[in-house]
Amino acid sequence: MTPGKGILSPEHNVIYLQWCRTTTFSHPEILIAIKYSWHYFS
Q: Where are the domains of the chain?
C-alpha cells in the first residue's frame, strides 16, 4: 500500500477523525490504543 492511498484517504480521514472525537470522548483508553496503532502502522 502506498502512502496516502487506500484506507488512509482524505475522505476516510475526515470520517475517522469525527469517529475518534465521539468515541474517545467517552472512551479515553481507545485514544491511547489508536495513537499506538497509528504510529505502528504509519
A: 6-41
